[in-house]
Amino acid sequence: MRPETAVAIHLEDYAPAPYQIDTVDLDIQLSPRSTDVFARLAVRRHEDTDPGAPLELDGDELELVGLTLDGMPLLENAYSATPSKLTVNAPPEEPFILEIKTRIDPDTNTELMGLYRSSGTYCTQCEAEGFRRITYFLDRPDVLSVYTTRIEARKGDAPILLGNGNPVNAGDLPGTDRHFSVWHDPHPKPSYLFAMVAGDLAHVADTFVTTSGRKVDLKIYVEHGREDRCAWAMDSLKRSMKWDEDVFGCEYDLDVFNIVAVSDFNMGAMENKGLNIFNDKYVLADPETATDQDYANIEAVIAHEYFHNWTGNRITCRDWFQLCLKEGLTVFRDQEFSSDMRSRAVKRIADVRLLKSHQFPEDAGPLAHPVRPRKYTEINNFYTATVYEKGAEVVRMLKTLLGPDGFRKGMDLYLERHDVDATTIEAFLVCFSEATATDLGQFARWYDQAGTPQVEVKSHYDTRAGELTLDISQSIAPLPGQASSEPAVIPLRFGLVGPNGEDMSFDRVTGARLQEDVLILEEQNQSVTFTGLKSRPVVSLLR
Ligand code: SER
Ligand code: ZN
Predict the structure, then answer these.
(1) How far apart are CA 367 and CA 386, in angstroms?
(2) Considering the entire predicted model, what is its pTM?
């Protein structure tokens, strides 16, 4: 974390961006030590913004080398530029074109954020705030723009040039040793999903035909000599595409889907639109050396990044507090995919083990934070087991509460209502609430309270009356900085096992709502009574 950015940001301070950027035309002229980036931004004042309000664009270690507004150079007192901010003091009221030229040095960018070059390959990572290291921008997830990217490089350095979206043009620059390619992404997206790659890479190719008959060219790019280790990743990709159509009705929406595997990458992988970039350990598998677990991980990460195309890219986060909106949901989706591809029980055991070994300690210690935090100083520190894994469990609970049909109805509404939107956890929950006529007000506490609830159950059987009573209480150990916790909605799947090993029937339940084999806990203390039992059952809880 750089000291000048160490300012706490609060969820309640959210305000929409004062300006919108409708289109972004980039021309990136690659050179290892000095890459020129020309950005042409179509800027529009938000209707609620005062005319003439300054336009402040984010930067990070940037050098401004040119600036025009509607084609005219700006006078010196009309703007100010530092490495971390470009301010246009009094922009026009009407929409305007801002052209910005910056110069960056991919070779010395060792943060691996923004545009960097490693092992001879140019590569980007823009989530969460890396795009501002390429050009000045409203670098926040609620500014959705249509991008066209022209990439130019020496043919010898980078015979392969890749961008987001569909390739629309390519060629040589006559009389030079350079060439270019142009990519257009018709889907409006936030800047964190921008990506480009350029280098001398090999690839494997395949195709997928979507349910509506769109043919998609699939390619996985790797270092030369590694092509024969991509077969499993490609197979996983095609199965992911089919599964998302079958299970969530989500169809792919571009003519190409490219994956690039690089050896120097900060995150596991990144879901950039149409151009996923991976740490190569989640792509390459050789039957001679890869373990079963390696295969399972590749399958899961390929699926995870692919599934972000809908849950993350077409529907993104309004602000970084909502990170679990895309991550919790997408982890849930990749868990379900793996469960369908292999053993559901084995997958569940593995996920619960991970939760207990990584997320429970996080949630009980000094780094405990809610699935949706309310405050951060450095968003990169919030890519945590709580946001990802607990976030996925909360979605899983939602499915348990609403049942598979109710859950699917809510998802359908969410995917339809919020397509091309940057939204919030509240808006997500409203879709499930509306689609199933369920009040999820109390359920929402799962997103706001840190800590792992402890559920304690004491059972008492009255032989004469044939009644079983469960005294159930829930609590969260006090956490620093969190007011005492309110009871959460906890679905408790259970059975009452009879003498022959079968689940026993009972007449009725009082003291809690019952949905099929799930008790819905909603109070700090609940006394739940089952009547009409023939003999004392063995209580089987948390199935
Ligand atoms: N957005 C990335 C992912 O989770 C960051 O790791 O897929
Ligand atoms: Zn993700």
Answers:
(1) 10
(2) 0.98
**What pLDDT sits at residue 315?**
99
From the CB of 270, is ligand 1 less than 6 Å away? Answer: yes
Catalytic site includes residue 305: yes
CA distance 243 to 235: 12
Kindly give the interhelix angle for 323-341 and 425-436, rounded to the nearest 10 degrees: 60
Token pair recorded at residue 10: 């609060």
Residues with CB under 5 A from ligand 2 (ion): 327, 330
Residues in CB range of 215: below 8 A, 6 or more apart? 207, 208, 209, 255
> How far, in Å, CA of 296 to CA of 281, rounded?
12
Tell me the two tokens of residue 351: 């996920």
Residues in CB range of 425: below 8 A, 6 or more apart:
322, 324, 325, 372, 444, 447
Q: Superfamily for 454-541?
A: Aminopeptidase N, middle-beta domain (2.60.40.1840)
| Residue 239, amino acid | R
Could you tell me the distance, in angstroms and rounded to a whole number, from the CA of residue 395 to the centre of ligand 2?
A: 15
CATH number of the 315-447 domain: 1.10.390.10
- Could you tell me which residues are beta bridge partners of residue 39? 26, 100
Closest-CA residue to 336 (of 401, 239, 259, 425):
239
Q: What is the DSSP string of 35-103?
A: EEEEEEEEEEE-TTSPTTPPEEEE-SS--EEEEEETTEEPPGGGEEEETTEEEESS--SS-EEEEEEEE
Plot region of 175 (φ>0 → left; ψ -120 to 50 → alpha; else → beta)? left
Beta strands in 105-191 (DSSP E): 114-118, 121-125, 145-154, 160-163, 166-172, 178-189
Burial 448-480 (b: 16+ CB within 10 A, else e): bbbbbbeeebebeeeeeebbbbbebbbebeebe
Which pLDDT belongs to residue 261? 97
Point out the residues of the chain with pLDDT beneath 70: 1-5
DSSP 140: S
The superfamily in CATH containing domain 17-108+136-191 is: tricorn interacting facor f3 domain (2.60.40.1730)
What would the two tokens of residue 11 be?
Answer: 């969820």
Domain boundaries, the chain: 17-108+136-191, 315-447, 454-541
Contact 102, 152 (CB under 8 A): no
pLDDT of residue 2: 52
Same fold, 315-447 and 454-541: no
Q: How far is CA 437 from the centre of its chain?
A: 27
Whole-number pLDDT of residue 1:
44
Cα–Cα distance measured from residue 525 to residue 212, given in angstroms and rounded to the nearest whole number? 52
Task: Give the C-alpha separation, 123 to 117, whole Å.
Answer: 6
- Ligand 1 neighbourhood includes 269 CB (under 6 angstroms): yes
Nearest to 220 by CA among 292, 282, 156: 282
Report how far ligand 2's centroid is from the alpha carbon of 267 (Å). Answer: 10
Residue with tokens 């972000």: 308
